[in-house]
Amino acid sequence: MSNSHKEAAGLAEHNVLLGNRIMGPMPWILAILMFMTILAAAVGLSLGLSAYRLSSDVEHRLTVQIIEANADIRQSQSLSVIKHLTGIHGVVSATGVDDDQLGKLVTPWLGNDGAEAGLPYPSLIDVVLRPDAQLNARALEQELRNIAPSVHIEPDSQWLRPLVRLLTVVSWLAFSIVLLMMVALAAAVMLSARASLNTHRATIDILHLIGSSDGQIARLFQRRIVIDALASGAIGLVGAIIVLALFQLLVGQMDSEFFGASVLPLWGWPLLVALPAFGTFLANFAARVTVLRALKQIL
Q: N or C: which end of the chain has fewer CB within 10 A?
């Protein structure tokens, strides 16, 4: 290739690769898409993990209530029920809930007036079952009524199952949003590549005249879009990490087991960091396909 051809090729490459990359709207659109994608993925992971933990924790747990006004009789029946439960095959443990802890549980509804008035609280027994236990809650309740006539058994999963279902549905919805965001990112890259081709039509003609192939020209546009995608991904990732870190800081200040279970685990962070890398790969692929198809139409 002659010196004039090399200079023309260098100028053409300079025109294609440079330009108003950061000043244009497309990199910022990609950054917003990546920011929302990372947040949606974090929500999906957190809620999915919360649903799994709740389901695992309550699937094999029972709550036994003994409703008796006389405190001495209630205490005696509670001890007898615990002794009977620990002897049943399939029961891992049966633990009574002390009055102080029970008072804290009802304080949000009764305030401190309930404790000051001396209201009788029912005895609660937390029962943990083996995963392979085949206990019928209703049959067990009838059996325990020989010891405590006012006993009542509630499987924990009975009132938490709707919440687990809701968390699962929302987590899958969040993952669906991640997929839609990736589709939107690919579409934005295609539009950007088309617009860039139209803008640099004269440069492309020069590259064709000096013998550049469609693949070589496509690589020039790919390099520009990959640089844009990397910068946009970094901006979106930093913004998402700041938001998630603030959220986890606020959750950590709340004394709540439910919100504590929704905190993103350590193994989830590498998955979020990998999203910008995948977005860059997707942008590179979408740009190449778009440019090659457009170049064939030009010729």
A: C
Between CA 198 and CA 83 the distance in angstroms is: 82
Residues near 271 by Cβ (< 8 Å), separated by ≥ 6?
41, 45
Q: What is the DSSP letter of 254?
A: S
Which residues, 6 or more positions from 78, have their beta carbon under 8 angstroms from its beta carbon?
66, 96, 123, 125, 148
Q: Is the sign of the CA dihedral 111, 116, 120, 124 positive or negative?
A: positive
Please state the domain extents for the chain.
3-55+164-298, 68-149
Query: Would you say 66 and 126 are in contact if contact means Cβ atoms under 8 Å apart?
Result: no
Q: Whole-model pTM above 0.70?
A: yes
Per-residue pLDDT tens listing for the chain (299 residues): 445 444 444 444 444 444 445 446 788 889 999 999 999 999 999 888 888 877 776 777 888 888 877 778 888 888 888 888 888 887 888 888 776 777 666 665 555 655 555 566 778 888 888 877 777 778 888 888 888 888 888 776 667 778 888 888 999 999 999 999 999 999 988 888 887 777 777 777 677 677 667 777 778 778 888 888 888 999 999 999 999 888 878 776 665 555 555 667 778 889 999 999 999 999 889 888 888 888 777 65
User: What are 251's two structure tokens?
Assistant: 């959750």
What's CA 64's distance to the chain center, in Å?
34
